[in-house]
# Entry
Amino acid sequence: MAQDILKGKRGIITGALDENSIAWKVAEKAHQQGAMFTLTNAPIAMRMGQINKLAELTGSQIIPADATNMDDIKNLYEKSIDVLGGKIDFVLHSIGMSPNVRKNIPYTELNYDFYNKSLDVSAISLHKMLSSAYKMDALNEEASVVALSYIAAQRAYPFYNDMAEAKAMLESIVRSFGYHYGKAKKVRINSVSQSPTKTTAGTGIKGFDDFFNFAESLSPLGNASAESCADFCVALFSDMCKMITMQNIFHDGGYSNTGVSMEAMEKFKS
Ligand code: NAI
# Structure
């Protein structure tokens, strides 16, 4: 594996809750590749999570921020620039939460206050982070922003509930802001559409384990792990991917382009 592909780069990594979090793996890999970064999460998650351990492992500072709160986001950029000694080269948006999912409310009976909260936390937070950075000029030229998405943005996945709309919106923000930030400062913005992954957010979805096995049986390469997702995020942060922007890239072992697999067919043999 190439070494130091993020040497000299300064980043902000959101969403590392515990060792299973995709963001946790991204932080470990970015550290291995020579990056400096700050870690952030919602203040409430800090108390429940193990982010201090990750900060120690990667020599990073933690700056609490609720990604829906503009004051917190401004403070996050100001402090990160101060701590890291310059503007930011990469940002990982690894944030998702739906109160409707948490409370097991069926899609056909959504609570609309919760619905708004799902969109705000899981999608509009990306717009807020980008718009703050844009106004503050907090990102360097050719910086790279990566958000994590899921294929329910394009197809019906009954169990994914209102997170499907949140991901569709997230991917739209990637395209729309990608245009503006690309024109203004050559900043790249992409989303990575990841396989089902056993994390707190993932396993919080009803029927997750069954679906994890289904996706595994459909994907020629099997489900993509959190570690391989982290490798890909690091590649997108690096200078090796300077001309990729406004894309939603499937990182799913081939699942999204597979109609049916022989393993799945076996189960329906008559
Ligand atoms: P996770 O539960 O470890 O991470 C979600 C993070 O969002 C947590 O750290 C949580 O504290 C943070 N968060 C929630 N509300 C917040 C707020 N208001 N402000 C700041 N942070 C907040 O789970 P995972 O799976 O690592 O999730 C990361 C991203 O990957 C999410 O966007 C998720 O939707 C996406 N994803 C996950 C998949 C899976 O199967 N686990 C599949 C595809 C995408």
